[in-house]
C-alpha cells in the first residue's frame, strides 16, 4: 500500500485480495477520494467538510449519514447502504480473523 506525500493512502491503486485496504487507516482525503471514485463527487465534499476520516466513517450510523452530512436523502441512502455499511462489515470481518 502506497502512502502519498500528504499522509493519505492510495485507495484507488491499493487493492488487497480483491478488497480495498482497511478504511480504519484512511485519512480524510482517502474517504473523499473513495466517494468521488464511486460516483458521489458532489457528496464527497460533505465528508471533507465534516472531517470524516476512515475511523470516523466506520463509526457512522445510518442516521449520521442521512442527517449529519446535510446531503440529499437519495444519495445519502445509497452512500450508507452500498458503501458505508459494506465497508463496516468488511472491516469487522477482517479484524475478526
From TrEMBL:
Coiled-coil blocks: none
Start and end residues of each SAM domain: 26-74
Record field: compositional bias (Polar residues): 1-17
Chain residue ranges for the region called Disordered: 1-21
Pfam families: SAM_1 (PF00536)
GO cellular component terms, A-Z: nucleus
GO molecular function, one term: histone binding
Name of this chain's protein: SAM domain-containing protein
Taxonomic lineage of the native organism: Eukaryota, Metazoa, Chordata, Craniata, Vertebrata
